[in-house]
Amino acid sequence: MTLTQHDIDREIAAEHAAYEKRVADGAPVEHHPRRDYTPYRSSVLRHPKQPPITIDVSKDPELVELHSPAFGERDITEIDNDLTRQHNGEPIGERITVEGRLLDRDGRPLRGQLIEVWQANSAGRYAHQREQHDAPLDPNFTGVGRTLTDDSGFYRFTTIQPGPYPWRQHVNAWRPAHIHFSLFGTAFTQRLVTQMYFPSDPLFPYDPIIQSVTDDAARQRLVATYDHSLSVPEFSMGYHWDIVLDGPNATWIEEGR
Amino acid sequence: MTKIDTSRPETVLPTPSHTVGPFYGHALPFPGGGDIAPVGHPESIALQGYVYDGEGNPLPDAFVELWSADPDGDVPQVDGSIRRDPASGGYLGRNGVEFTGWGRIQTDANGHWTARTLRPGARGRSAPYISVCVFARGLLVHLYTRIYLPGDEAALAADPLLARVPAERRDTLIARERRDGTYRFDIRLQGEGETVFLEFQ
Fold this sequence. Notes:
The complex is a heterodimer of chains A (about 260) and B (about 200). Chain A is an alpha+beta fold. Chain A is about 15% helix and about 20% strand. In chain A, strands 2, 5, 10, 11 and 12 form a five-stranded mixed beta sheet that branches. A four-stranded antiparallel beta sheet of chain A has the order 4-3-8-9, with no helix packed on it. Chain A starts with a helix and ends with a helix. Helices cover about 5% and strands about 25% of the residues of chain B. Chain B has a single domain (about 15-190), classed as Sandwich (Protocatechuate 3,4-Dioxygenase, subunit A), CATH 2.60.130.10. Chain B starts with about 45 loop residues before the first strand and ends with a strand. In chain B, strand 7 (about 175) and strand 8 (about 185) form a beta hairpin. Chain B has helices spanning about 155, 165-170; strands at about 45-50, 60-65, 100-105, 110-120, 130-135, 145-150, 175, 185, 185-190, 200. The chains are: A alpha+beta (about 260), B mainly beta (about 200). Strand 1 (about 55) of chain A pairs parallel with strand 10 of chain B. Chain A: GO terms for molecular function: ferric iron binding; protocatechuate 3,4-dioxygenase activity. Chain A: Belongs to the intradiol ring-cleavage dioxygenase family. Chain A: Keywords: Dioxygenase, Oxidoreductase. Chain A: This is Protocatechuate 3,4-dioxygenase. Chain B: Belongs to the intradiol ring-cleavage dioxygenase family.
């Protein structure tokens, strides 16, 4: 049987209603998706059925997971955060600048941490061999960048507004435009991979990946804010997106004692 | 809102996780990602394994990150895992001498991954282990587990985590030593023999 958008819409609504009921019944707010989220079919065989074993890090400050690998100036080049300058020519599309802060759960800036990004080009195509969506590749755009956060936890990327793209999970399945982010904090427990979206994308309600975050407020935290002060005159549109890493770190233990 | 007011801690809430999707392969994996051990180091060990889904099919679109202490049990604080070449804009790779403790390894078309790292030393009350973080298309939040090495049964018996794992699942956290001297560690995301995964609080 062909899977339609209507089928997926119903499943998304059911998951959302189930979440709202859990919270109304006193269950905690869920900041992250559940790994078992059927509207995103690829999750079905790839989520554990057994609950994880919880490690209370305050009982053992020596855990290697409370530390994080180090990255430094050797691990990036100066223009790795400018995705528009990696080829001889100019990529096609609307130039954007994305800026924000990397924070821990207490709102403290995470300094000198590695941020990696990747994205589709302005036509909605990734420069990835397995990607066969029939949209043009841009010889001047790979869509990959990295940077280190500065002393106040700020990062900044210059890139091209990515396009939405079809992904064939169901008939007429389209991903809203997004940029993938991979992040490190001061502890391996804070590791995060996520996606940043753009304001008011009409595809949000139809996309089971963003809807896997069933909490409405949490989902909003994946959407950047247009910030005119970040727009560069005669050059680019500016977006602001702060990122908060979950998970305990060593400082958290010291304060929790 | 995605501008966070850090003067109001109650508004500082975590950014949700998302899957890496299928198209991270030109962005995250890097050459020599699994060659964590310095060249010729006498404490080098080789690890290999598969990542399987709930039907026992290996995943060609997953990657693992390994993170561990050095043989003395000290946490590496050396950068340089993904050294870049400012001249070409490409990867220089590790320098082959310094131990960063961290690596990232893409599964191949058979769902197989391999790595060479240093035998970790013990820290605190734990038996020596390598921390593992698993990412894949379809996995909405990454998964943590640990690779313990066989051999020192007393240390494994005293490990606070292993002591809490039901006996029938304990072996999913302990690599098996093969006749060729490598350690095999498979990751089963779901179903029979499901790997024990961890969360930290």
